[in-house]
Amino acid sequence: MYICVCHGISDRKLREVVQQGARSFEELQARTGVSTCCGACEPMARAMVEESKAPDSSCVELSH
Prior knowledge:
Blueprint: E1 2-4, E2 9-10, H1 11-19, H2 25-32, H3 42-53
């Protein structure tokens, strides 16, 4: 799915850049150009960066 229509940037591309180490919206923006035109994609791009910072719930250790 395209996140940034102005620059043709997909969610797959943004996730790839986040996985390669982009840890802030500004870094994601600098590496991809996302949200440098109309800005409509900024909330979604910011959310993708924040998701990457969330703890992985599949790695939660259960104590008995």
